[in-house]
Design brief:
This protein is of the alpha/beta class. Helices cover 52% and strands 14% of the residues. The chain binds NADP nicotinamide-adenine-dinucleotide phosphate.
Length: 270
């Protein structure tokens, strides 16, 4: 896409330019006018050279000079940040928060004249431009705001608009998903190594297996159970493994992981 094809966004700012903000910035066209803030000056210098952007340690200065303000600090830092931004007039700004747990009302109630808020839940697939992002918008968002959010959040990701009440569950599924899936893969790899397989070959086979499985499920008419039945024939090795997983409570363990993540996301929102 050439510079002339980019929708006009004005200046896009990122407050709390850490891992996730960096991943989002990395997926956005360098043609956008971007700015970032965090407290570490050394980290800001690195961001300046990596993304060719303006930086500041002053969050209020960033918010004042940007048209779209991404809020990317940890949820635990959100309340302090709101105080830092108390003098900024948000009436002409679109806020995009990626904070786990924090509801749209958290921002509209604390920031001056702030009504247009997008609450997004991205994931670290953005690091390889294969992110999965869900977002909800406040009632005051205009069609133009929604269009801008759609363009920005679709960069390097599959982004989908949802209801805000769905976001804590989405946090526990696709937000936490890359770590959950890595956890599952590590368990498979550890088991393979315990049985004498080399780490390198186990990992290569597992990565390719995940890619192939996801691609097949995505493109075929079979659902999970249909696909499992195709692989796990009666009396076979796959069926023996799945039966052992059921006996050992794998379903319950996975369900507990999702439940715990939802509970924690809600706690972070308080
Ligand atoms: N990581 C994920 O997979 C993921 C997925 C979905 C959503 N999220 C959400 O994304 C947010 C950021 O997560 P992350 O993993 O990117 O964390 P992170 O790497 O720790 O980034 C947060 C950044 O905020 C900066 N910061 C802290 N206090 C600040 C302040 N007062 N003003 C300006 N900057 C400040 C920190 O840098 P300094 O110390 O230099 O200030 C830090 O780099 C969280 O709210 C999380 O819920 C994360």
């Amino acid at each position: 896409m050439g510079a002339g094809d980019l929708p006009a966004m004005g200046r896009i700012g990122f407050i709390g330019a850490g891992n996730m903000a960096g991943a989002i910035m990395g997926c956005l066209s360098k043609e956008y006018d971007m700015m970032a803030s965090r407290r570490s000056v050394n980290a800001l210098r690195a961001l300046e050279s990596q993304y060719d952007i303006t930086t500041t340690t002053d969050n209020a200065e960033l918010a004042t000079s940007c048209d779209i303000v991404f809020i990317c600090v940890k949820p635990q830092s959100a309340e302090g940040l709101m105080s830092e931004l108390s003098e900024v007039d948000f009436s002409n700004k679109l806020v995009i928060s990626i904070l786990a747990g924090k509801r749209i009302s958290f921002f509209t109630e604390r920031l001056t004249n702030c009504t247009r808020v997008v609450r997004a839940m991205p994931n670290l697939g953005l690091l390889v431009e294969k992110g999965a992002t869900a977002y909800a918008v406040s009632d005051a968002c205009t069609p133009e705001d929604e269009y801008k959010a759609h363009i920005l959040l679709n960069a390097g990701a599959y982004a989908v608009k949802v209801e805000e009440d769905e976001i804590d569950t989405i946090t526990a599924v696709s937000g936490c998903g890359p770590a959950f899936i890595s956890y599952f893969l590590k368990s498979l790899e550890d088991a393979a190594i315990r049985h004498g397989l080399g780490k390198g070959i186990a990992q290569k086979l597992l990565f390719q297996t995940v890619l192939g499985t996801c691609e097949y499920l995505r493109t075929s008419d079979l659902d999970y159970d249909g696909f499992i039945s195709k692989v796990a024939s009666k009396g076979g090795a796959t069926r023996a493994g799945i039966d052992a997983g059921k006996r050992e409570g794998v379903d319950e363990a996975i369900s507990a992981m999702v439940d715990a993540a939802i509970v924690r996301a809600r706690e972070l929102g308080r």
